[in-house]
Write a structure and sequence with these properties.
Strand order of the largest sheet: 2-8-7-6-5
Number of helices: 16
Oligomer: single chain
CATH architecture of the largest domain: 3-Layer(aba) Sandwich
CATH class of the largest domain: Alpha Beta
CATH superfamily of the largest domain: Type I PLP-dependent aspartate aminotransferase-like (Major domain)
Distance between the termini: 55 Å
Largest sheet: 5 strands, mixed
Bound molecules: ligand F0G
Strand content: 5-15%
Number of strands: 14
Length: about 450
């Protein structure tokens, strides 16, 4: 009997051409880009794994929803369609639309976070941390230690260490801790899921200390998929039942809809509390737009509502997460050091183990990411020292425990042949890894979130 492979739960109705380039073209383009992959033009990239954010393919149903968009300034039917979808899928009855995830963070944090506050969580995403630090508050990473050993098998490496969390909560005044943030899945630790068991424990501790619990829910559906597969209690539950269970422990959520809701742009805040909603509405109107559109077109809210349903279908999630694992397994079988188990949206290469000869001061993960681009026109992203940025107080470089090159897989976009192409090139670099001896130095950097605009030179 043959093993039946995972087949996509869709077929392709429209295609976009992409062009391969030559190595010498890429060698020139990357110099012009100052060795910053964000500076490349998309035509200079063959397989673009920079991010899974906003890069997915919308369905025919989402496109048809676009035609039904209501562009009324106030009270648009698209707003109510989205409100109903959010209430059904997350259980949050209050919501504010925003133009993307970081905008949701900006509005929520303007409402709840002040200077001197502490915000514990599991490896906050960089925009989340940026918005916390911008307010002169501090993000405290309470992720379990297992997450920092890429060789260790653990089903829920996104989990929060309850002891670390309790230490923060018990040794600081409640008034200084506006919220705990659980990021599902945890992007910064490798797209790793958080278990319901852990969410329950965090919720128990949060209640004990009277602190609010929020989710950064960009990839909540992928998290729910892992719970179904790995947490016994939920093996027979649907993805939507699991999502509702996850959100039932939270006071609210911020969402970058560009991930699991499979739209190109959009975000929202979901809330249980009327008063927080009222306060946040003021900031939403100031920064985003009136509360029934908040930075989104009516048509985009329609596509997002439809995307929330499609993104929480089991068959879709199964083929998506197995495509990511397909890449992970090819790399792992060739000996390439990758974060294990594989994440939901991306494979994370452990750059320190790939290039141990490159000093950390020369940006190991960036060095590898540039090499993959030159090798095969593959654009990945550095999740290492450049992203970790400088300490806001001392201005010293922060060297994270892990230096990753992230290969993020856009949703419903590339075929497994593209994935094979990517794996083959990475394995070729792996085989000649000893030739790569030096990295880069920074020529220019912005004072905050420097990775987007950094300019580098070869050592
Ligand atoms: N939270 C998480 C966990 C994210 O991964 C992102 C974005 C955001 C918040 C911010 O959302 O981009 O809509 O403003 N992550 C993208 C990425 C950029 O490539 O991982 P946004």
């Amino acid at each position: 009997m043959m093993n039946i492979p995972f087949a996509e739960s869709f077929k392709i109705k429209m295609v976009e051409s992409i062009r391969r380039s030559t190595r010498s073209e890429r060698e020139k383009w990357i110099i012009d880009a100052k060795y910053n992959l964000f500076n490349l033009r998309s035509e200079q990239v063959f397989v673009d794994l920079l991010t899974d954010s906003g890069t997915g393919a919308m369905s025919d149903r989402q496109w048809s929803e676009m035609m039904l968009g209501d562009e009324s300034y106030a009270g648009a039917s698209s707003y109510y369609k989205l409100k109903d979808a959010i209430a059904e899928i997350t259980g949050f009855t209050y919501f504010l639309p925003t133009h993307q995830g970081r905008a949701a963070e900006n509005v929520l944090f303007s409402t709840l976070i002040k200077a001197g506050d502490l915000v514990p969580g599991n490896s906050h995403f960089d925009t989340t941390k940026g918005h916390i630090e911008f307010r002169k508050a501090k993000a405290i990473d309470c992720t379990i230690d297992e997450a920092f050993d890429t060789t260790l098998d653990h089903p829920f490496k996104g989990n929060i260490d309850i002891q670390k969390l309790e230490k923060v909560l018990s040794s600081n005044p409640k008034a200084q801790i506006p919220m705990i943030i659980i990021t599902v899945t945890c992007n910064s630790s490798g797209g790793q899921p958080v278990s319901i068991e852990n969410i329950r424990e965090v919720s128990r501790v949060a209640k004990k200390y009277g602190v609010k619990l929020f989710f950064d829910a960009a990839r909540f559906a992928e998290n729910a998929y892992f719970i179904k597969i790995r947490e016994k209690e939920f093996a027979r539950h649907s993805i939507r039942e699991i999502a509702r269970e996850m959100f039932s422990y939270a006071d609210g959520m911020t969402m970058s809809s560009k991930k699991d809701a499979i739209v190109n742009m959009g975000g929202f805040i979901g809330l249980r509390d009327k008063e927080i909603h009222q306060q946040a509405s003021v900031f939403n109107i100031m920064f985003e737009g009136y509360i029934t559109y908040g930075g989104m077109s009516g048509r985009d809210m329609n596509a997002l509502a439809q995307g929330l349903y499609e993104g929480t279908e089991f068959d879709y999630l199964e083929s998506r997460i197995n495509q990511v694992a397909y890449l992970g397994n090819m790399l792992k079988d060739a000996g390439v050091p990758v974060q294990f188990p594989f994440g939901g949206h991306a494979i994370f290469i452990d750059a320190k183990r790939f290039l141990p000869q490159v000093p950390k001061e020369q940006y190991v993960a960036q060095t590898l990411a540039v090499e993959l681009y030159i090798e095969g026109g593959i654009r990945a992203v550095e999740i290492g020292t450049i992203l970790a940025d400088r300490d806001p107080m001392t201005r010293e470089n922060r060297y994270p425990d892990l230096e990753f090159v992230r290969l993020a897989i856009p949703r419903r976009t590339y075929t497994n042949n593209h994935i094979q192409y990517v794996a083959a090139h990475i394995i070729n670099v792996w085989e000649r890894r000893n030739e790569i001896k030096t990295g880069y130095s920074i020529h220019y950097e912005a004072p905050i979130m420097r990775h987007f605009t950094v300019e580098l030179g070869k050592i």
